[in-house]
Amino acid sequence: MPELTAELQNVADLITRFIEHDFFPAGICPSVLSEAVVAYPSRGGKRIRPALLLWTCAMFGGKIREAVPAAAAVEIYHNWTLVHDDIIDRDEIRRGAPAQHIMLRDYAKKNFPGISQANQEAFGTSFAILTGDIQQGWAIHALCSMLDLGVAPDLVLRLVRAMQSDLNRALISGEALDVEFEYRNPADVSEEDVLRMIDGKTGALVNFSVQTGAAIAHGRYEPHSDLYATLHDFSRDFARAFQLQDDLLGIYGEPKKFGKPIGSDFQEAKPTLLYLEAMKRLDEDGRARLNSMLRLPFYGEAEINTLRSLLSDCGAADAVRAKNDELVRSAVSILRTCPDNEWRDLLVEFSTKIMSRTV
Amino acid sequence: MPELTAELQNVADLITRFIEHDFFPAGICPSVLSEAVVAYPSRGGKRIRPALLLWTCAMFGGKIREAVPAAAAVEIYHNWTLVHDDIIDRDEIRRGAPAQHIMLRDYAKKNFPGISQANQEAFGTSFAILTGDIQQGWAIHALCSMLDLGVAPDLVLRLVRAMQSDLNRALISGEALDVEFEYRNPADVSEEDVLRMIDGKTGALVNFSVQTGAAIAHGRYEPHSDLYATLHDFSRDFARAFQLQDDLLGIYGEPKKFGKPIGSDFQEAKPTLLYLEAMKRLDEDGRARLNSMLRLPFYGEAEINTLRSLLSDCGAADAVRAKNDELVRSAVSILRTCPDNEWRDLLVEFSTKIMSRTV
C-alpha cells in the first residue's frame, strides 16, 4: 500500500523534475525574468494540488506518468496566482523566503546602483506582474505537453478550455472578492459572500485538479456527469474545511508553527467565517468589543487572549470546529463512493490530514 | 475591390460584436471586475491585429467567418498587455479615456467612502492586475471558440500552444526589456537590445496574427515552413517600421494629433532608435547636450526645438526616416510574394499606411 510521506515525496520529485527540465523558461529574457518564472514553482510548498490530481488519476485507473504535465500545470497555475496575490496583499514572505516582488526589488537595488527606493520597488512590482503573466502561459504550455505523452488532442483541448475559461474566471473572481473585502466593513460581508470567495479562490483549482485527474484516467472530460458533480462537491468541502481550519489556526495556532502571525486576520480586518460566526452569536456589546479588536497596530499576548476569549466564550470557535468536522466527514464520505483501492485510501488519509491540519 | 475604410469598419464591427456577445465576462464577479474585463476591448482602437489576421486569412483563401474568434483573441490578448503596461508605466490615459487602474481607482473612491487615497490607488492597481489576468484567459477562451465554428481541434490546439508558449514568452520578454531600459543609462543600451525589445513587444503578436490567419486558411499550422518564415520577416519589418515612425512622431509630430506629449520619450529617458542613431553621429559635446535633454521636468517649445535641431543636424532623423522607408519597402515586397488578389492589395495598402503613419 502506498505510504503517504513517501508518495508525497514522489509527487514533489516528479513536479520538481518537470519544472527543472521544461524548456519553457529558457526562452525568456532578460535572465532575471527567466529566473523569477522558476522561483516560486521550485520553492516547494505542499504540492497539494498535484498530489490530488495524480492520485485521483491513479484511483480511477489512469497512468500517473501521463498526468505529470497536468500536475505540473496546476502547480504552476497556483504559483502565478501567488505571485500576483503577494503583490496585491503586500506580503513580503512566501514559504519562508522573500516574496517575488521583494526578490526583484532587491535585484534592482543591487544591479541599478543609485536608483531611488521608490524605483527599486516599482521595478520589483513591475517584474513580478510580468512573472505571473508569463507563468499563466507556462501552465497552459505544461498542460499541452501531455500531447507529447500520447494523451489525445481532443482531451487536452477540453482541459485547456476548462483551465482558461472556467478555472480562470472562478479563481480570479474569488481573489477579487477577497481583495474587495478589505475595502468593506467586515461586519457587512455575508457568510454567503465569504463562501463564494473560498469556493473560487481555493475550491476552483482543487476541483480542476481532481476532475483533470479523472479525465486523464478515463480518456475523456465529462463536465456534466454525476461523477464530476461529486468531485466538485468534494472540492468545495475540501476548500471550505481547509479555510475554516486556517481561520482557527490564525487565532489558536502556535505562532512558531503557523505560517502567518497569530491575529493577522484581525489586523487585516478580514471577514473570516470565524469572525462572522462570533458576530452572529454576540450581543451588541460583544460585537462592539470584537470590532474594536480589528486593525490594531499590534497583537501581543494580551490582545490574542482577549480575542480567544471573545471567540470561545460565545461558542463561535466550537461552532467553526464542528463545521470543519462536518465538512471533513462529508468530503471523506464522497471519496468513499469512488473506486475502492489503495489510491482512494491514500486520498482519504491525505485529505483528512490537510483539512484537519494543526499547522 | 475591398475598400480600406469600409473593410476596417467591418473588422471593427466583427470584433465589437464578438466582444459584446461572448458569454465569458458574464461569469465574473464582482460586477466591477466583469465590467473592467470588457472595458479596453470595447474601447476600440485601430484593430490592427484583427485586420492583419482576417485579411491574411482571406488572402490565402480562408473564410473570414471562421477566423473571427481568433481575430477577437489577438485583440483581447493585446488589450490585457495594455492593462498591465499601463499599471507598469503609470500611464493615466488610454485611447483618450482613463487607464484601467485609474477607472478602478475612481470606482473605489466612489464606492468605499472614507478610504484613503493610497487605498483607492491600491484597489485600482490590484483590480487592474486581476483584469489583465482574466483577459489573458479570455483570449485563449476566444481562440478555442473557433471549435464551435468547425475549425479542427488539432489546429486550434496548435494555435493555443503557439499563443501561450511562443507568443506569451516573446511578448512579455519584450515588455520586460522595455521596463528594464528605464532603469539603465540609455546610452548603455545597444541598438540590438532595442530591436529585440521591439521584435518581442510588437513583432510577436503581429507575427502570431498573420501566421494564424494563414493557418486557418490552410487548415494547418506549419511553424517550420518557408511561408511562416516569410510572414515572420514581414512582421518584424512591420513592427520595426511602426516603432521608428513612433520615434519620429514623438519629436516631430503634431502635439494635437499624436497620442502622447511630444518629447515624452526623452522625458522618460527611453533609448529609442532615434536617440541611439544620434548618439552614434554626435561628437562628445553633442552627446553631452543630447543627454542633458533627458528627464527634464518640462518639454516646451524651446526644449522641443533644441531636440529637433540636435536630432536633425547630425542626420539622425533622416537616417531613421530612410530606415523606415527601407522597412516599408521590404515589408511590402514580402507581401507581394503572397497570392495576388484583392486582399493582398488591401494588406499592402493598410500596412503601408500604418508603417508610414503621420499620426
What is shown here, in short?
The structure is a homodimer of 359-residue chains. Chain A has 359 residues and is an all-alpha fold.
Q: Pair with the most extensive interface? A: A-B, 51 and 51 residues
- Can you give the mean pLDDT of chain A? 95
State the distance separating the first and last CA atoms of chain A. 26 Å
> Spans of chain A of 5+ residues with little confidence (pLDDT < 50)?
none
Specify the structural class of chain A: mainly alpha
- CATH fold naming of the domain at 4-26 and 46-67 and 152-354 in chain A: Farnesyl Diphosphate Synthase
Measured as a percent range, the helix fraction of chain A is: over 70%
Polypeptide structure, described:
The structure is a homodimer of 359-residue chains. Chain A starts with a helix and ends with a helix. Chain A has 359 residues and is mainly alpha-helical. Helices cover 72% and strands 1% of the residues of chain A. Chain A has 15 helices and 2 strands. The model of chain A has no long low-confidence stretch (mean pLDDT 95). Chains A and B meet through helix 4, helix 6 and helix 7 of A and helix 4, helix 6 and helix 7 of B.
